[in-house]
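Subject: Interface between my chains keeps coming out wrong

I've been trying for a while to get a sensible model of this assembly. When I model each chain on its own everything looks fine, but I need the whole thing in one frame so I can look at the contacts. Pasting all components below, labels as-is. Any help appreciated, I'm running out of ideas.
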Amino acid sequence: MKNNIQVKHITIVGGTHGNELHGIHLVKNRQANRYKNRDKLNVKTLLANPLAIEANRRYIETDLNRCFKLEDLNDESLSLKEQKQAREIAQELGGQDLVIDLHNTTANMGLTIILLTDRGIQDPFMVNLLFYLQKKEPQVYILNRSLSANESPYLSSLGKQDLAIEVGPVPHGTLYAELFVKTEALIEHILDFLEEPQALSGTLTYYQHLFSLDYPRDESGEICAMIHPDLQGRDYQPLKPGDPLFLKFDGETIANEQPGTLWPVFINEQAYYEKGVALTFTKKEQLIF
Amino acid sequence: MKNNIQVKHITIVGGTHGNELHGIHLVKNRQANRYKNRDKLNVKTLLANPLAIEANRRYIETDLNRCFKLEDLNDESLSLKEQKQAREIAQELGGQDLVIDLHNTTANMGLTIILLTDRGIQDPFMVNLLFYLQKKEPQVYILNRSLSANESPYLSSLGKQDLAIEVGPVPHGTLYAELFVKTEALIEHILDFLEEPQALSGTLTYYQHLFSLDYPRDESGEICAMIHPDLQGRDYQPLKPGDPLFLKFDGETIANEQPGTLWPVFINEQAYYEKGVALTFTKKEQLIF
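Reply #2:
Try treating it as a single job with all components included. I did that and got this:
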């Protein structure tokens, strides 16, 4: 597949969530010049939410990584700390060809590349990049979110192209060396490709975001079930109708009622308890190019 | 081994740390009367730090589970939220025969029973109980801390006997059903024994707390290494001189320099980053009784 575009101006972002330590330390490492020079590229770094990093919390007043809708960025009346921070970041990153935003998850999602917008999967250059990464590291999953750039509340959508890298399972506020080293290698593979793009052809496997499911709750709105032990850690594994989904505190199993085979992700992500998300369903797709 | 004492008045505590969800929901389950009656026992429950539970944080102003030294409890000038809460809890639990405090850890510690004081290992009744639990559930580890009751800053030491149950690996702020169900069963085993104590004999294996080790830090005091991938998750496995301990961000491995074989626990516990604890060394001991 032929490449028509150039990606030269790249920003690598850590600490969009202040308790996701891998991105923070990967960016600090890079700022300490521990990596090889990339003469053909302009690679910048950013620690996105310094106050939250200092506090070792996801955010201080509101989730920074939900503050980047164009409408919200243009609304000067929004005055929470993260809303103001988002406007500063948008100014700084507006002209970037590619924004790479580094995240951790407690879900067993390995090395997942999230494309927030549809721009990635529609762009031959990006498809070649993603295919190249999967060849380098078969554990790389691609999750396509298909938001429009203007509607996306996520930081990485600020770039002309966007990649969020979601790495787990890692408890927030901790470092898991094995995944840290793999993430570091993945970033280097991305930069290798951007320096020397290749026109490839093949079959790209990706997961298309569908919808999320909340935990079962009692009359007062409180959670009354957990992810079922048989589902825990089985991100990207097929889930069929009747498979166990939740285990209620009283011992009852709740089965999956969705028709057909689905592929759950973000199973038991800690930060999503407050967002009412127990897991997210995807369908598995292939792009032949 | 003959039993001389009686343990009738028991309090089961959850939410001493507000983001350790297993204990919170186990206590709420019990408050909803989902368990069998224990006619011979007086079993109470307590959610220790309601403000922290509401905030889904370990604590609000200071770690409640470090506020129970007798000297601190008697010092009315200590006025942080958790220091005041500790005095109220001490009043409530003062007369209890046994306080069971439920915790989670991100470390791979399975079902660990922590004896904060030496009273447990010196008491035939408690030794029989612990041995009974290990027979029921071989995954139960016993960790002996050997503090004096007056010097212990931990909540469970308020009882005439103390058990803290430390369950992991679980990211804070999440529920892992498999470990939740096992913890629930363990509590029932404890209550079974207290209703019908047995005089047993055998060999009790336990781990004696020695000392903790901080992460390597740079000149500015910031962490510059992670738990080595070969050590991650290997709680209660023997560690020998020269075994890998840390992986520095620059790629260098730091080896263990402690002489002899040690048995690390609390490896990569999230809440201990701020306390300067990367892991805790123990020695493995056996009590023949």
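Reply #3:
Confirming on my end. The CA atoms of residues 205 and 286 of chain B lie 4 Å apart.
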